[in-house]
Amino acid sequence: MFIENKNRSIWIQQPQSNDPLYPEWYAFMQAKKEEWYLQTHDDLTLKAWYLPAEKSTNKTVLLANGYKSVRDRYGAFGWLFHELGYNVLMPDYRAGAKSPGNFIGFGWLDRKDNTGWIKQIIEKNPKSEIAMFGISMGASATMMLSGEALPEHVKCFIEDCGYDTVWNELAHKAKHDYHLPQFPLIHLLSFWSKLFAGYDWKEASSITQLNKNTKPFLFIHGDQDTFVPVEMVYRNYDATRGPKEIYIATGGRHVRSYEIDKEKYREVVANFLKTYFN
């Protein structure tokens, strides 16, 4: 139930016209974008949209989406960075709604895919400077990426509502949604993940990777998030070893911190990027 993605269509949730972020989403969807492709180490072909900035720049934001989602869903975030003057690369993750692959990476497998996208950005423009931004599962992928050996082109990271470890998140969901204990369910599913997907849920840790990171990091979380409990952001924040900032959105639910106060969210993100990206 947690690993293999057999029913993808239920997670395609495009904003409706009454959605607070609909104008930004619509603008992004109407913009002319390039299609990029990435061949992974295990021979999957992943796709991404690339939206160049209106004014030529070497600065690109690599945007990571959430669990089983499609890039369409997060167009509003893509437009945010486009309006701030950056190129935007927005991939579909493996085993997402429109991507190949049988097993969800929960950020751990996706961190390696992100290194491939980073390499491709640099190959296309050796002068590139890159910021990584992730939402939900993509936020955890961003944190997990931060502990890898990365080129100097990668300048900083932003995560919005990511979990601290896959184990803790899925144990929370089992208890919160299904009233099930960790044992034996999470232990068995983690073993299954190791057997079939190549990783167990304790090793898939944002905290462990953040302990190896020295680059600047902005952490964002809504204080009303019950999907990924807000206490996780403080554990992530404490773990990183580089310059760091934190923004807790009052009234924000999961993946809703932007829409709850668009101006504040934009200001926090823009100021962070001005400080560490520009």
TrEMBL record:
Gene3D superfamilies: alpha/beta hydrolase
Serine aminopeptidase S33 domain residues: 57-155
A molecular function GO annotation: hydrolase activity
Source organism, top-level taxon: Bacteria
UniProt KW Nucleus keyword: no
Annotated InterPro entries: AB_hydrolase_fold (IPR029058), DNA-binding_regulatory (IPR052920), Hydrolase_4 (IPR022742)
Keywords: Hydrolase
Name of the protein in question: Alpha/beta hydrolase
